[in-house]
Design goal:
single chain, about 280 residues, Rossmann fold, eight-stranded mixed beta sheet, three-stranded mixed beta sheet, globular, methyltransferase activity
């Protein structure tokens, strides 16, 4: 009678090897993604050195399912350029579901995290992912948007890309909620963290960068390295020039990441399009 369990176990191993082989092909992962029904709301996946729970129906979740990461190469490269930092606290503004917080802490460079995120769906997944990766005790989650004053603001949901939800009202109808708005310097004071403790700021906040930069004067004055998304088409006509002028007063170097390319340039000559820029002393 023991032969049947043995055969069943062998068949399971054979099946697992076959699917592991198939998952190595991009087309198979893409087809698998398309076959996920809407009643599968969340997926939890074990990656090489971390776990993540995410929605397979929105942009970042689709990238995680298909590619096994979301901008991890960028996170690793930024750490390589920045090198060792005096401050050992990571500040992520627009932390989303925690992908970059987890990637960056896997380097061992940071012993504390401050994650700022206003989007309720993202906050729920962020907290779950911090727990899955044993980061809850070293992380402060601040549920608010970052801006140039303290108050309350309308926050609009993007249903296809949770990370694209923002304070900018889109064309047409969109669900919205009211969220707290706080200055970054005040956020740090509120959690009793000195600006000198911050080693890196990672910021992706869908067009609200200038307001947030103005509100983190204590960090900018110290020229703390900042990685930020820079999309001038999201700004009002004068804001792109105002942003580059403000940054050039404080930072000496800038590395621009566009797709797979990387180049150092004068901050005052930042390109159009959609780029990530690393501000360095």
């Amino acid at each position: 009678m023991k032969i049947f369990p043995s055969i069943e176990k062998a068949l399971r191993r054979s099946r697992d090897r076959m699917f592991a082989r198939l998952r190595s092909f991009d087309q198979f992962r893409q087809i698998s993604l398309l076959t996920i029904n809407n009643d599968i709301v969340l997926v939890t996946r074990q990656f090489a050195d971390h776990k993540l729970t995410f929605s397979p129906h929105e942009m970042i979740g689709k990238s995680l399912f298909k590619n096994g990461h979301f901008q991890r190469g960028l996170a690793d490269r930024v750490l390589e350029i920045v090198g060792e930092t005096k401050g050992k606290t990571l500040l992520e503004i627009g932390a989303n579901i925690g992908t970059h917080s987890i990637y960056l802490t896997r380097s061992g460079r940071f012993d504390r995290l401050i994650c700022v995120e206003p989007e309720p769906r993202n906050v729920n997944l962020l907290k779950q992912n911090l727990f899955l990766n044993d980061l809850t005790d070293k992380t402060i989650v601040v549920e608010c948007a970052a801006g140039d004053h303290n108050g309350v603001v309308d926050f609009y949901f993007d249903e296809s890309n949770y990370g694209a939800s923002s304070m900018t009202k889109p064309r047409g109808e969109a669900r919205s909620t009211r969220v707290p708005l706080r200055r970054v310097d005040d956020i740090l004071r509120g959690v009793d963290v000195s600006p000198d403790d911050i080693g890196l700021v990672w910021m992706d906040i869908e067009g609200a960068e200038l307001e947030a930069l103005k509100s983190m004067r204590e960090l900018v004055d110290r020229r703390i390295p900042i990685l930020m998304e820079y999309v001038p088409s999201r700004y009002r006509p004068s804001e792109a020039n105002e942003t580059t002028a403000y940054l050039s007063q404080h930072y000496g170097r800038c590395v621009v990441f566009s797709g797979k390319s990387e180049r150092e340039m004068d901050i005052r000559n930042l390109p159009g399009g959609e780029n990530d820029i690393l501000l360095l002393p």
